[in-house]
Amino acid sequence: MSMWWFVTTLVITVFISNSPVYAYDNNPLQDICVAVNDSKAAVFVNGKICKNPKFATANDFFASGLNVSGIAAPGAGGAAKFVDVNNMPGLNTLGISIGRVDLEPQRFVPFHTHPRATELITVLEGILYAGFLVPDPANFFKSRLFSKILYPGDVFVFPIGLIHFQYNVGNKKAIYLTAFNSQNPGFIFIPNSIFGSNPPIPDDVLTQGFQLIIALWLFGQSLFQIKSITMRMWWFITTLVITAFTCNSPSYAYDNNPLQDICVAVNDSKAAVFVNGKICKDPKLATANDFFASGFNVSGNAVPGFGFATKTADLNNMPGLNTLGLFFGRIDLEPQRLAPLHTHPRATELITILEGTIYAGFLVPNPANFFKSRLFSKVLNPGDVFVIPKGLIHFQYNVGNRKATYFAIFNSQNPGFVIIPNSIFASNPPISDDVLAKGFMLNKTEIAVLRKKFS
Ligand SMILES: *[C@@H]1O[C@H](CO)[C@@H](O)[C@H](O)[C@H]1NC(C)=O
Ligand SMILES: *[C@@H]1O[C@H](CO)[C@@H](O)[C@H](O)[C@H]1NC(C)=O
Ligand SMILES: *[C@@H]1O[C@H](CO)[C@@H](O)[C@H](O)[C@H]1NC(C)=O
Ligand SMILES: *[C@@H]1O[C@H](CO)[C@@H](O)[C@H](O)[C@H]1NC(C)=O
Ligand SMILES: *[C@@H]1O[C@H](CO)[C@@H](O)[C@H](O)[C@H]1NC(C)=O
Which ligand 2 atom is the nearest neighbour of the CA of 384? Predict the structure, then answer.
């Protein structure tokens, strides 16, 4: 009973729409991977080398400090802080990471791409003008700008690999969280890559190449302006790219994701469904609003009596998320209330606390003894980040004496929600008493009590 809120607010949107998740090719594992015959010179391509699981602790899945700004380089105009596999080793192979950017008024995060990740940003403070460029297949020399002015609570998504920017158009500092569906999204700064390459691209090539293509992206700014922008962006390179590139940590590889909860084969194409996300709108008719959602500065609708409110940015209210592999939610938990034991079969979940105190944990099966599992748990305060690996049973519990608010980011557009007690004790049709009694070593009276509680 007490979890029905969860089913109604989350599962209905996810399951009834029956929207399948995305499929990617396996991700490339790093920026380049030149074949080598010498195994001693070889690198691991599937994430970093794994620690012996026996020595893993909850702290490997935990990071703190997103409640404060990163350190700005002098004159930089901004600061960035990232939680990635270097400072949160548990992220390795999980396909997700998060950061915080503080941008001074009128400062610009220049044109860049993330070759291996879709990025989803959420504004916490200030006003941001953000946009991305969608190539026009009918004319490769033009692209379409999808841009929005963003206020606190607004969410905007940049599809994998597309050129984008963020610009603080307000008169006070802007703060936003930035989540990626890769542990190593990669950063390519367009002007820096082009004008600061080593060895340099010949001037002739730049002059011609710039006029033909990049001028379109940069709204016709002069080469001089570009070079000066390039200089001003050095802070960004030092704060962001060093962490991303120097470590040269390769990204993850997954098998292709399953595309929905079940997929029963059918011979009748008329009865078939599209399995690679929802059917796509004609790209000509897409607008920036398809990639935008707002209202995350306030709580979702609480279900009366249940101590919980959720709000999600998903395919239904943010159709641009289709096939991009991200799902976003805000959860407000009343004191002493619990987000019950559940799993997401298709997504790793990364949570960031905005307010309050949460006790969160997940269960890691023990391969040496399948009848035991290990609990990895942490008490989390504002600015703390915790990651819950794909498919593992977990919970969040507000142990404070005031409301707790957190953002949850999932690296699937359809993570799936399996609420353990409800799935088992309130299935339709019901699991027989005999099976439940044996499965949980309970008698039928006890089973009846549990069925009543969870249905
Ligand atoms: C690797 O070794 C094979 C067989 O010895 C050889 O044919 C090939 O050219 C080598 N590749 C590289 C990249 O050195
Ligand atoms: C940020 O969080 C840390 C750890 O919870 C805490 O010690 C610190 O006071 C917080 N800072 C701010 C500015 O809220
Ligand atoms: C939330 O954001 C909306 C849109 O920017 C704004 O109208 C509203 O006042 C904000 N609410 C709060 C509580 O900050
Ligand atoms: C689909 O059609 C093939 C060939 O007609 C048949 O062998 C197969 O059993 C059919 N499969 C299903 C699930 O109906
Ligand atoms: C079932 O178990 C409960 C508690 O262990 C016990 O009080 C009750 O008598 C049992 N009922 C039956 C029918 O065995």
Answer: 5
Give me the helices (H) in 133-243, please: 190-195, 203-209, 215-217, 223-232, 234-236
In tens, the pLDDT along 167-195 reads: 999 999 999 999 998 887 888 777 666 66
Q: Is 367 part of a structural domain of the chain?
A: no
Q: How confident is the model at residue 408 (pLDDT cuts 50, 70, 90)?
A: very high
Give the up-direction half-sphere exposure of residue 101: CA atoms within 13 A in the CB hemisphere: 30
d(CA 152, CA 161): 25
Q: Which of 43-57, 234-248, 346-360, 365-379 shows the lowest per-residue confidence on average (mean pLDDT)?
A: 234-248
Strands (E), 273-337: 292-293, 308-313, 327-333
**Is the C-beta atom of 39 inside 6 A of ligand 1?**
no
Query: Which of 246, 277, 311 marks a domain boundary?
Result: 246
**Domain span holding position 432:** 418-455
Which pLDDT score is estimated for 261? 45
Q: What CATH number corresponds to the domain at position 85?
A: 2.60.120.10
Q: Please say which residue of 212, 246, 280 terminates a domain.
A: 246
Pick 146 or 191 by higher pLDDT: 146
Query: Is residue 229 assigned to a domain?
Result: yes
Point out the annotated binding site for Mn(2+). Answer: 342, 344, 349, 394
Please give the model's pTM, rounded to 2 decimal places. Answer: 0.73
**Please, are residues 160 and 114 in contact by the beta-carbon 8 Å criterion?**
yes
Mean pLDDT of the chain: 76
For the chain, how big is the Rg over CA atoms in Å?
A: 23
406 pLDDT above the threshold of 50? yes
Q: Which ligand is nearest to the CA of 385?
A: 2
Going through 286-445 in order, the beta strands assigned E by DSSP cover 292-293, 308-313, 327-333, 338-343, 349-355, 358-365, 373-380, 385-388, 394-398, 404-410, 418-419
- Report residues whose beta carbon is within 6 angstroms of any ligand 2 atom: 64, 67-68, 381-383
The length of the chain in residues reads 455
The protein residue with its alpha carbon nearest to ligand 5, atom 3, reads: 446
∠ at Cα 176 (175, 180), nearest 5°? 155
**369-378, long-range: CB within 8 Å, 24+ apart, which pairs?**
376/56, 376/57, 376/58, 376/61, 377/58, 378/58, 378/59, 378/61, 378/62
Instruction: Report the number of distinct structural domains present in the chain.
Output: 2
CA of 35 to the centre of ligand 1 (A): 9
In a domain, 90, yes or no: yes
Q: Is residue 177 part of a domain?
A: yes
